[in-house]
Design brief:
Structural class: mainly alpha
Distance between the termini: 55 Å
CATH class of the largest domain: Mainly Alpha
Strand content: under 5%
CATH topology of the largest domain: Tetracycline Repressor, domain 2
Largest sheet: none
Order of helices and strands: HHHHHHHHHH
Number of strands: 0
Number of domains: 2
CATH architecture of the largest domain: Orthogonal Bundle
Shape: elongated
Length: 190
């Protein structure tokens, strides 16, 4: 019985990913995906989509959460991939900027530019807050003695400066990554 549930869950997860992939493609193309259109494109009933996502807003929330989660996972992997704190922040900001430049949905969610936010809502606040929370968690792990206020300030500042670079780049991404890493270390007193 457990194996059957596991297989059913796996099939459900695969279907969910397929629906979100199609919804993302449509959103990036500036289309407003309806539940019946998504059901037709994926080859499932509308009821299946409504059962999985609730409604169009539920689908949009699932897509934003998946996109944000993947973006944050990439940033966190970059942070964890470097032993030196400055190098880790340069890598993380670089990964964040690269993904946002290459993924139109990420960029749209963070900057509010393009047709995507009008399809799936706007406002980067929750995404920036999630990025700052993950960054703060990383800093607490690697600098356990750092003052909590400094950790929070460094993480939030880095997240907001990274998004600011996307909206109005002051120069090359690598320079911004280095500058943001320097700010983080200075806030931490290093």
């Amino acid at each position: 019985m457990t194996e059957r549930r596991t297989m059913a869950r796996r099939a459900r997860d695969e279907l969910r990913d397929e629906v979100l992939d199609v919804a993302e493609d449509l959103a990036v193309a500036g289309e407003r995906p309806s539940m019946p259109e998504l059901a037709r494109r994926v080859g499932v009933s509308r009821q299946t989509l409504y059962s999985e996502f609730g409604d169009r807003d539920g689908l949009a929330a699932a897509l934003v959460l998946r996109t944000t989660g993947r973006w944050l996972d990439g940033i966190e992997a970059a942070l964890e991939g470097e032993a030196d704190l400055h190098a880790a922040w340069v890598a993380a900001v670089g990964a964040a900027l690269t993904e946002a430049a290459e993924n139109p949905l990420v960029k749209a969610l963070l900057t509010g530019y393009s047709a995507v936010p009008s399809v799936f809502g706007s406002g980067s606040g929750p995404i920036v807050d999630a990025a700052a929370a993950r960054a703060a968690g990383y800093l607490r792990r690697v600098r356990p003695g750092a003052a909590d206020a400094d950790v929070r300030l460094a993480a939030e500042t880095a997240a907001r400066l990274t998004v600011s670079h996307l909206v109005q780049p002051p120069g090359p991404a690598q320079r911004s990554a280095t500058d943001i890493a320097t700010v983080v270390l200075r806030v931490l007193g290093e």
